[in-house]
Amino acid sequence: MHRAILAALNEERAARRAAVVVTELATGRQRLVREADAGADPLAGDIERAIVSGKSGIVETAEGEVFLNAHLPPARIVAIGAVHISQALAPMAKIAGFDFEIIDPRTAFASPERFPGVTLHAEWPEDVLKARPFDPYTAVCVITHDPKIDDVPLISALNTGCFYIGALGSRKTHGRRVDRLKEAGIPQSSIERIDAPIGADIGAANPGEIAVAILASVIEAFRKRKMFAERRGETAAA
């Protein structure tokens, strides 16, 4: 790989953005297609499919075969709340291939003793997000039941376009949450992206079962995400 392409690819990786290296098999010529530019590329459809699936492969074009090497950021789950559900979700997320971390300013809950081997941020979400902002490859699970902790990351997730956003609580609790989000200026169309009550509807009744339901919804959202279609729709609407 040419040094300039490698440098550009590493820049995208560091920023947690997807990119595809396109290699012409007959000539060896290469170019880097950033996720933000994929829709305008002559191979837009193939590149977008590679980014959504995360799979690399050979594609036939009018000029010959090309190899699309997809580079995606590791998908991660960020749990807002060091609670029993998070204790169950942490090992499940790892087994499923997701990076996992927890944000909770309550140091009595967010302790290494309760979460061995888990990335913990025992700080307020607004402070953590300055250094580790959300992105489209992040799933945010809000599960503290405390608006002082939950609302800031929830708003950030909606503004960032995280691939999954879920919030724990009854419909009555979510109704109050919706009122607060509207007061904060979040449009109804964005609020409707929140999966609430959080997780797949499997009748989950305890923390372990709720964690299973959350992980099922996260996996479904990641594998069925339609980022490019949504972006094109937003562009057309603008």
From TrEMBL:
InterPro entries, A to Z: MoCofactor_Util/Proc, XdhC_Rossmann_dom
Transmembrane segments: none
Protein known as: XdhC family protein
Ranges where the XdhC Rossmann domain occurs: 78-217
The organism of origin for this protein: Jiella endophytica
PANTHER family the UniProt entry points to: ALDEHYDE OXIDOREDUCTASE MOLYBDENUM COFACTOR ASSEMBLY PROTEIN, MOLYBDENUM COFACTOR INSERTION CHAPERONE PAOD
Coiled coil: none
